[in-house]
C-alpha cells in the first residue's frame, strides 16, 4: 500500500557541471514513481538533515500530519523529476549547487545508500505546470539553473517541426549543458548572472522577444521576483492569455524552504 512519504535510496551521483549534480534514486519497497508525462514534473522530497544520511520520514507518515500541522517538521523541498527509468523504479533529480541550502549541501555529500523521502510517490495526481495548447507552434522557454532540469525534459518532449526559443541563465560557462530536442530550438545562454550571484538578466532577454504571428505558449521557471517580472511582460506587453503561459517562482532570494511554488494564477 502507498504511504504518504516513501523511501528512495541513492544509487548514483554525478556532477553534470560545476553547479549541477544528478542523483539517481531507486524506490525502497514496491512503490513506483507514477510519471505524469509533463516535462516539469514536480517531486517533493524529504532531505537528510545536515550530517545525516537518512531523511526522517516518520513525522510525514503520521496520520495527523498535513495542512495545519504545528509540530516540528524535518526538511523537505520541491524538485523536478529529470528522468524516469524502469517503469518508475528509478528516477533522476538534478540538484543545483548554491550557497547555504540544506538540500544543496546534502546533494554535494550524497552517496549511494543515503535515503530520502518521496511524497505522494504513486498517488497519480499531477503537480506540474507546463501545459502548451496543442496549436502552439512556437514556445518560449525561460529558466535559471533550477528550471533547467524541467526545461531539458520539456525540450525532449516537443513535437518535431515545432519551434522554440530557450533562454537559460546559469552560474558559469561550464554550466551550459547540451540539450536534446526533436524541435527547431534557438538557445540563448546567459552566464554569470542571476542564480543568487548577481541580478538576473532573464527579464531583459524576454523583453527582446516579439510576439510571433502564430499561436504560442511560454513557460518560465526561475527565482520568484524574476518570474513575476517576466509574467507581467508576457501579460501586458506581449498580450499573452493566462492559459498560454506558466511563470513559476522556483525559489525566493534570501528565503529558505519548502514554501509552495509561486504560480501567479
Ligand atoms: C516546482 C519546483 C521545481 C523545482 N525543481 C528544482 C530542480 O529540479 N533542481 C533544483 O536545484 N531546484 C529546483 N527547485 C528549486 C528548489 O526547490 C529551491 O532552490 C530550494 O530552495 C533549494 O533548497 P535548499 O535547501 O538547497 O536551499 P534553502 O534552504 O531553501 O535556501 C537557503 C538559501 O539559499 C537560497 N537559494 C535557494 N535556492 C537557490 C538557488 N537555486 N540558487 C541560489 N540561491 C538559492 C535561498 O534564497 C536561501 O537564502 C524547484 C522548485 C519548485 C517550486
Can you walk me through this structure?
The two termini are 34 Å apart. Helix content is 13%, strand content 31%. It is globular. The chain has 4 helices and 12 strands; from the N terminus they run ββββββαββαββαβαβ. The longest helix is centred in the last third of the chain and has 12 residues. The chain has 2 domains: 115 residues, Beta Barrel (Elongation Factor Tu (Ef-tu), domain 3), CATH 2.40.30; 127 residues, Nucleotide-binding domain of ferredoxin-NADP reductase (FNR) module (Rossmann fold, 3-Layer(aba) Sandwich), CATH 3.40.50. By secondary structure, the protein is α/β, with parallel strands linked by helices. The strands form 2 sheets. The protein has a 7-stranded antiparallel β-sheet with strand order 4-3-7-1-2-6-5. Strands 10-9-8-11-12 form a 5-stranded parallel β-sheet, with helices on both faces. It binds flavin-adenine dinucleotide (FAD).
Ligands (ions, cofactors included): flavin-adenine dinucleotide
Q: Judging from the principal axes of the Cα atoms, what is the shape?
A: globular
What are the segments in which pLDDT stays under 50 over at least 5 consecutive residues?
none
Can you count the beta strands?
12
Head-to-tail CA distance between termini: 34 Å
The CATH superfamily of the largest domain turns out to be Nucleotide-binding domain of ferredoxin-NADP reductase (FNR) module
- Examine the coordinates and then state which fold CATH places here, giving the name of the CATH topology of the largest domain: Rossmann fold
Give a short account of the largest sheet.
Answer: 7 strands, antiparallel
Quickly count the domains. 2
Amino acid at each position: 500500500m502507498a504511504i504518504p512519504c516513501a523511501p528512495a535510496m541513492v544509487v548514483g551521483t554525478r556532477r553534470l557541471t560545476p553547479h549541477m549534480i544528478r542523483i539517481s534514486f531507486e524506490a525502497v519497497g514496491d512503490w513506483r514513481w507514477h510519471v505524469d508525462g509533463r516535462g516539469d514534473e514536480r517531486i517533493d522530497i524529504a532531505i537528510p538533515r545536515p550530517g545525516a544520511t537518512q531523511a526522517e520520514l516518520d513525522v510525514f507518515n503520521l496520520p495527523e500530519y498535513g495542512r495545519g500541522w504545528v509540530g516540528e517538521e524535518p526538511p523537505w523541498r520541491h524538485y523536478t523529476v529529470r528522468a524516469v527509468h524502469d517503469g518508475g523504479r528509478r528516477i533522476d533529480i538534478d540538484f543545483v549547487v548554491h550557497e547555504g541550502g540544506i538540500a544543496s549541501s546534502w546533494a554535494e555529500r550524497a552517496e549511494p545508500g543515503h535515503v530520502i523521502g518521496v511524497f505522494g510517490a504513486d498517488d497519480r495526481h499531477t503537480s506540474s505546470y507546463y501545459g502548451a495548447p496543442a496549436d502552439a507552434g512556437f514556445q518560449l522557454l525561460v529558466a535559471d539553473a533550477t528550471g533547467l532540469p524541467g526545461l531539458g525534459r520539456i525540450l525532449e518532449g516537443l513535437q518535431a517541426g515545432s519551434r522554440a526559443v530557450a533562454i537559460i541563465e546559469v552560474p558559469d560557462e561550464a554550466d551550459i549543458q547540451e540539450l536534446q530536442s526533436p524541435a527547431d530550438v534557438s538557445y540563448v545562454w546567459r552566464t554569470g548572472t542571476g542564480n543568487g550571484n548577481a541580478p538576473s538578466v532573464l527579464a531583459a532577454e524576454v523583453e527582446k522577444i516579439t510576439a510571433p504571428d502564430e499561436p504560442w505558449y511560454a513557460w518560465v521557471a526561475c527565482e520568484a521576483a524574476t518570474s513575476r517580472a517576466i509574467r507581467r511582460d508576457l501579460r501586458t506587453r506581449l498580450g499573452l492569455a493566462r492559459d498560454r503561459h506558466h511563470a513559476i517562482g522556483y525559489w525566493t532570494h534570501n528565503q529558505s524552504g519548502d514554501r509552495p511554488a509561486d504560480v501567479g494564477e
